[in-house]
Specification:
mainly alpha; 75% helix; two-stranded antiparallel sheet; 352 residues; Rhopdopsin 7-helix transmembrane proteins
Length: 352
């Protein structure tokens, strides 16, 4: 008598989606976390240098780097450990669930707010008004930054009330419908909508003012230092990175909000796999790309930032030897091929 065991076949398309999701969690998250931590630490070290501490825009970049470091630690690292250890205490410990999402929300808000302040700083720096340019002083920037970070911490207090852990569902999420509405409102208004609008507006106005200033002559022209122009370039590159990486996450969040009441039984296996992959790619991975890659945007867009990085990495003794060698080469070159000034300064004996 032959007995045939029941076998279940998995659709190859579903298997590919699941493999892609596992690949992002297993390889993508650790790579992004490593690059992000290295970048944030180097950002902080560079913006702590004396040449950077006196610039108001660099102060906002410095504060944003600390916020990005916190986002990577409490966001990406916690998510990554939950996958590798196959145990996520967020879904069992209520206090840990609340504190983790509170710190993550406050850090994300502070990171965006500091970039918006940097945009406003560069916009006012290009103004003809002395009063507007006074906003760009380092002491003013430091006070504004402290008030902004404190405001983000106060705004995020709602997370401690509306979030809770659900062991049976293995989730850490909002506990009531009202909490879901509050969380969604804060996400759209303060974490994406308002920052994206302000960043885009100020970036466009910065470019407009710089072009307008280049056509001015005499006293009407605002003299902007080359370092400040490069900081503006770094800022615009950061804004582009933020908008490009935030749009997919917001689109996914809108889709999940609309379809949250669809019964799970009505979804096909392919749809479930596609939703899980999209949520992983745009949520636990994609939403942290902005926090992780700011250092590399700065490095690619600003030569002054690359010089500060070079001074930070290369030891002082090597730098002094390089400068000494360069000076000796210049001296040797001048001896062999004297400049016009040296030639004119030479005294020749008079002919009799």
């Amino acid at each position: 008598m032959n007995y045939s065991l029941p076998t279940t076949t998995i659709d190859p398309a579903v298997e590919r989606l699941n493999t892609a999701r596992i690949g992002i969690q297993r390889f993508g998250q650790p790579i992004l976390f490593t690059l992000g931590m290295i970048g944030c630490i180097l950002n902080i070290a560079i913006f702590l240098r004396s040449s950077m501490r006196t610039n108001s825009c660099a102060i906002y970049f410095h504060a944003s780097s600390w916020a990005n470091l916190s986002c990577l630690t409490w966001g990406l690292f916690v998510s990554m450990m939950g996958y590798f250890l196959n145990y996520n205490p967020l879904t069992y410990i209520s206090v840990y669930c609340k504190v983790r999402y509170y710190i993550l929300t406050a850090s994300q808000l502070a990171s965006r707010a500091c970039v918006v302040l940097a945009c406003l700083d560069r916009f006012l720096l290009c103004s003809q008004s002395v009063g507007q340019r006074s906003f760009c002083r380092p002491n003013v920037a430091f006070k504004v930054m402290l008030v902004t970070v404190a405001s983000c911490a106060v705004l995020s207090i709602y997370v401690l009330v509306v979030y809770d852990s659900f062991p049976q569902a293995r989730q850490c999420t909002t506990s009531t419908a009202a909490g879901k509405v509050i969380d969604t409102t804060v996400l759209f208004c303060f974490n994406f909508g308002t920052p994206a609008l302000l960043m885009s507006t100020f970036s466009g106005l910065i470019i407009w003012r710089l072009k307008r200033n280049s056509t001015r002559v005499g006293r009407r022209k605002v003299h902007v230092r080359h370092r400040d122009l490069q900081l503006a370039t770094m800022l615009i590159g950061q804004v582009i990175l933020y908008i490009v990486t935030a749009l997919p996450f917001v689109s996914t969040f809108v889709y999940l909000t609309i379809t949250q009441y669809d019964p799970q039984s009505s979804k096909s296996a392919y749809r479930i796999a596609a939703e899980n992959l999209t949520l992983t790619a745009t949520g636990s991975f994609g939403t942290f790309i902005f926090n992780a890659l700011t250092f590399y945007v700065y490095t690619l867009t600003a030569p002054s930032f690359r010089r500060e990085l070079f001074k930070l990495i290369v030891p002082v003794c090597w730098m002094s030897q390089f400068v000494t060698r360069e000076q000796s080469q210049m001296t040797r070159t001048n001896r062999i091929h004297p400049s016009i000034r040296d030639a004119l300064s030479m005294k020749f004996p008079e002919q009799t």
